[in-house]
Prior knowledge:
Blueprint lengths: L1 H8 L16 H12 L8 E2 L2 E3 H10 L5 H20 L7 E3 L17 H15 L12 H11 L22 H4 L26 H9 L3
Antiparallel strand pairs: 1-2, 2-3
Helix pairs in contact: 1-5, 1-6, 1-8, 3-4
Amino acid sequence: MLEDVAIILGLSTNGMPVIGSTFNNYEALEAECLDKFGVAPRKTEYRGNFIKLTWFRGLKDRLVLVDDIHIQRYVKCHIMLLFGTVMFGDKSGTEVHWKFLPLLHNFAGIIQFSWGSACLAHIYRVLCRITRVNCKEIDGPLTLLLTGAWICLPFLAPILGNPRLFPIANRWRNWEQIGHPYRFRSLFVWKAYAIGRIDLDVIPFEIRRIRLFGVS
């Protein structure tokens, strides 16, 4: 649900819809990258409508944060990396669709989009696709799916790291190194975010406000 996206990933579920046009030619991709980052990927750094995540990582590492323009480019690189991994990742895990670039045109307005709603819609689409008999892989915001399962099915979850971290997904950071001992004998938690399981002071006010009152 939208509440899960807000609590687990810390994404706003209110705001403008994440919509826009998608062009499938290199000239449009190049123009968007030049506008957002001052440089464009070479032919070896993109495939069709997808830009390799290594291009964004390399650009992010090379940027020197000497002024607001470079800081904004750094943040936009980070956002595109989040899109390509946590929020809208594809099965390759190495690329991100460049259709998101136009949404970053107004840097101050990035926060005004309902990224949480888009992320939830994406996972619903993924879950529909995996019901097909010929589907063998899954992509999308798997952090949301996995963390949601660990919260509601605690007998599956590794031991928590820091229980007061927010967003909740951060609580299982480096979970492979923590081990897999079962925490509870409960099969299912009906009220995953009830008082006693999550301290209210851990949840930022803007997220708690959305959760409790449903307002922007």
